[in-house]
């Protein structure tokens, strides 16, 4: 079965000099019964079970759902480290809690250089020792995404 294609335009994109890598794509003509997901800001518990929705390049099906958990959370860090089998193409996808609320946005697979991005000693040690646990991902806490969407005037009336 052929999937429908929808017209889309890039509405906003972060400057390449910013630490944040974010874009907003406006899609036209999607069915009316598709509603936005609920965003949930606030403290994220370590070992919280998560679901990541994405469209990795390395699989045949149109979408993938990956289960995992939050490795550690420090509100002073830009990234949340996730223990989940993520791949290129998961970036930009929502990270959902058990209630289906968006708590983060998938950024990318963790690289060796990312260890220096983590500010606190406990998280740094955890990531250094997690190299052999499988693929690890990094996600922006939803507060960071909400703040940027508010700056762009796209999202109004949401408290983070």
Give your account of this protein's structure.
By secondary structure, the protein is mainly β. Helices cover 12% and strands 30% of the residues. It is built from 2 helices and 8 strands; from the N terminus they run βββββββαβα. The strands form 2 sheets. It has a 6-stranded antiparallel β-barrel. It has a two-stranded antiparallel sheet with strand order 1-2. Strand 6 and strand 7 form a beta hairpin. The chain is globular. About 4% of the residues have low confidence.
Q: Order of SSEs, N→C?
A: EEEEEEEHEH
Principal-axis shape = globular
Structural class by sheet pairing and helices: mainly beta
Q: What fraction, in percent, of the residue positions are helical?
A: 10-25%
Number of helices: 2
Q: Pick out the low-confidence regions.
A: 129-134
Mean model confidence by pLDDT: 81
Major sheet details: 6 strands, antiparallel, barrel
């Amino acid at each position: 079965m052929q999937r429908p294609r929808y017209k889309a335009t890039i509405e906003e994109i972060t400057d390449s000099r910013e630490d944040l890598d974010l874009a907003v794509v406006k899609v036209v003509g999607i069915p009316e019964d598709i509603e936005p997901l609920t965003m949930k800001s606030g403290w994220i518990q370590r070992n919280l079970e998560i679901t990541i929705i994405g469209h990795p390049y390395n699989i045949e099906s149109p979408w993938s759902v990956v289960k995992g958990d939050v490795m550690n959370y420090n509100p002073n860090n830009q990234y949340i480290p996730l223990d989940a089998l993520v791949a290129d193409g998961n970036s930009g996808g929502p990270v959902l809690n058990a209630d289906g609320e968006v708590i983060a946005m998938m950024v990318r697979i963790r690289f060796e250089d990312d260890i220096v991005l983590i500010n606190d000693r406990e998280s740094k040690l955890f990531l250094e020792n997690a190299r052999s646990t499988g693929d690890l991902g990094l996600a922006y806490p939803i507060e960071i995404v909400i703040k940027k969407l508010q700056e762009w005037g796209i999202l109004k009336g949401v408290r983070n």
